C-alpha cells in the first residue's frame, strides 16, 4: 500500500526512538499494531460488503457468461459434464424417463431393421455375383469343350 522499504522503516524507527523515548516506544508500537489491525479488519469487511452487493446485483452471473463466451471450449465441456450428471440422475418413473425409454426402444428397432436390410442386401449381391461368376465359368467350360470337340 505505502511501499515502504527497509531503509524508510529504519529511519522512522530512529525518529520515533528520539521523539518518543525508549520507555514509551514498545507501547507506541503496540498501539500502532492494534490500529493497523483495525484498519485491515475494516478493509476486509468493506471488501466483503462490496462482493456481497455485487453478487446480489448479479455481477457474478454476468461475469461467468462473459467468461464462457470468451472460452467456448470450456463452456462446451461444462455442458457435457452437466448432461452426464443429468443422465446419472435419470429416473425412468417420470414422464420424461418413460419417453426416453420409448425412444430408446424405437431407436433399437430402427437399428435392428437397418442391420437386417443391409445384411439381406449384401446376401442378395453375393448371390447375384456368384450366379454371374458361375455362368461365366459354365460358358468358358462349354467353350473349351466345344473347341476340344472340333479339334
Concise description?
The chain is an all-alpha fold and 151 residues long.
Blueprint (SSEs and pairs):
Blueprint: H1 6-20, H2 25-57, H3 59-70, H4 72-88, H5 95-150
What is the helix/strand order? Answer: HHHHH
- Poorly predicted parts: 135-139, 141-151
Q: Largest beta sheet, briefly?
A: none
What's the helical proportion of residues?
over 70%
Distance between the termini: 116 Å
**What is the radius of gyration computed over CA atoms, rounded to a whole number of angstroms?**
43 Å
Counting DSSP H or I runs of 4 or more residues, the number of helices is 5
**Approximately what portion of the residues adopt beta-strand conformation?**
under 5%
Find the structural class using helix and strand composition: mainly alpha
Number of strands: 0
- The overall pLDDT average reads 79
Number of domains: 2
Taken from the alpha-carbon principal axes, the silhouette is rod-shaped
Task: Provide an overview of this structure.
- By secondary structure, the chain is mostly helical.
- The protein has two domains: 1-69; 97-151.
- It contains five helices and no strands.
- 0% of the residues are buried.
Amino acid at each position: 500500500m505505502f511501499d515502504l522499504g527497509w531503509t524508510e522503516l529504519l529511519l522512522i524507527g530512529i525518529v520515533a526512538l528520539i521523539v518518543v523515548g525508549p520507555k514509551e516506544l514498545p507501547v507506541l508500537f503496540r498501539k500502532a499494531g492494534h490500529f493497523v489491525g483495525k484498519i485491515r479488519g475494516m478493509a476486509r469487511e468493506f471488501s466483503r460488503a462490496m462482493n456481497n452487493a455485487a453478487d446480489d446485483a448479479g455481477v457474478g452471473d454476468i461475469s461467468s457468461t462473459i467468461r464462457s463466451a470468451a472460452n467456448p471450449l470450456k463452456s462446451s465441456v461444462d455442458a457435457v459434464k452437466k448432461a452426464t450428471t443429468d443422465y446419472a440422475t435419470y429416473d425412468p418413473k417420470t414422464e420424461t424417463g418413460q419417453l426416453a425409454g420409448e425412444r430408446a426402444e424405437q431407436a433399437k428397432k430402427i437399428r435392428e431393421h437397418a442391420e437386417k436390410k443391409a445384411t439381406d442386401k449384401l446376401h442378395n449381391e453375393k448371390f447375384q455375383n456368384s450366379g454371374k461368376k458361375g455362368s461365366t465359368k459354365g460358358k468358358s467350360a462349354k467353350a473349351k469343350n466345344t473347341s476340344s470337340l472340333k479339334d
